[in-house]
Amino acid sequence: MIPLLKNCLVVRHGIVNYAETLTRYSGISINKAYSTKSNNTFKNIVFVDGVRTPFLQSGTQYKNLLAYDLARHSLVSLQRKVGFPKEVVDYIVYGTVMQEVRTSNIGREAALAAGYSEHTPAHTVTMACISSNQAITTGIGLIACGVYDTVVAGGVEFMSDIPIRHSRSMRSLMLQANKAKTLPNKLALLASIRPGHFIPDLPAVAEFSSGETMGHSGDRLAAAFGVTRKEQDDYALRSHTLAAQAQQQGLLSDVMPYKVPNVDKVVDRDNGIRVSTEEQLAKLKPAFVKPYGTITAANASFLTDGASAALIMSEEKALQLGLKPKAYLRNFTYVSQDPVDQLLLGPSYAIPKILDKAKLTLKDIGVWEIHEAFAGQICANLKAMDSDIFAQKYLKRSSKVGIPDLKKWNAWGGSLSIGHPFAATGVRLATHTANRLIKEDQQFGLISACAAGGQGVGMIMERYPDATI
């Protein structure tokens, strides 16, 4: 990984004349100098802003809460930070993966608790680690086709209290007991209970289609691409180091402090960022494939509690309300491939596809925000993108995609260090992209992530003229 980091290309962009292009936003075909619309029938859709709770390791300060509490806080914080009237929100799309049965449509429940209008519909989506990407793009679709003007998208995950069920045999007995009419019937059911009935039905940690855990798949992927343990540890150290620097410099401005009830200290920062030494990382034992695997607790993302939310709307509506967007939401695509051998290769498929769709090249991208499930997954995707054989065999391209400028890649850290609450990560990636476009004076940003089931996403954002953080 280190040679890749050292040899990355330095890309320089020209300065865009935003004052000139802003006056013609309403009808110009795609153009690398400044893209506005690909078709006059579609609206410009903008990303106004995004927020999130601090991302915490599961079992820490949030452990006595519900996912609902974090989701509500993200929605309350978004409205307070941006200052929009809650009544202007036409629709809410919220993501979650590990669903709490009491709040199955958590988007609706959290919105009501956050004081949004009872007349604002909401639904909840799930697409594994790209659930809030799906929430954002669902909102894009609703706005693009003219159904709504203003959508809030977000996601939450709460790994401190995952749903654990009784075994299926016990559930069956309980349902029968509920229907039993006589005492003898109920006693007969009670007498049929055996010790095996009490074995809980735990949430699956393996892919349903393959029966393999993501960690085992990640180890196999790293081995297939020749990713060494040192490359993975070096990448993990890079992620934590960059995240620590961003945190110290106040760049993680999307974090909205949370006051946990009955706890004096306010939670105001992510708590999983830890900068270790190479020697400390090297001492850790494999977490999945023992004793020869290369994925460890330190070079994998950790179980995380957290929530996020973002405001997206038509540009026209934002200007009517006097809001200043941070970025345009330009293009998106979803991909899927073999969930056994290519479970975590979503970015390798999504990145070239979205670049082609947007008529952009690697050199046009000034900000890269890529989900880090495992350091080995990131390294494998970079090697896949730099492989002619992979491009020809799997992407049906004549030559390799190439390696992005890694100086612009996850410059504020990523999921390995900041944390990865499954359904909340997509909005975090989008918000960091928008903020980095402004802070680093870049025009285009690319978001990509892998997800369970062998799926992935690619998204393009473009800095809004004169945007500020």
TrEMBL record:
Residue ranges annotated for the Thiolase N-terminal domain, each copy included: 45-316
Pfam families: Thiolase_C, Thiolase_N
Alphabetized InterPro entries for the sequence: Thiolase (IPR002155), Thiolase-like (IPR016039), Thiolase_acyl_enz_int_AS (IPR020615), Thiolase_AS (IPR020610), Thiolase_C (IPR020617), Thiolase_CS (IPR020613), Thiolase_N (IPR020616)
Location of the protein in the cell: Mitochondrion
GO cellular component: mitochondrion
An example Gene Ontology molecular-function term: acetyl-CoA C-acyltransferase activity
Keyword list, A-Z: Acyltransferase, Cytoplasm, Fatty acid metabolism, Lipid metabolism, Mitochondrion, Transferase
Pathway linked to the protein: Lipid metabolism; fatty acid beta-oxidation
Keyword Ribosomal protein: no
GO biological process, one term: fatty acid beta-oxidation
Residues in Thiolase C-terminal domain copies: 323-463
Protein family (similarity comment): Belongs to the thiolase-like superfamily. Thiolase family.
Protein name: acetyl-CoA C-acyltransferase
Annotated source species: Pogonomyrmex barbatus
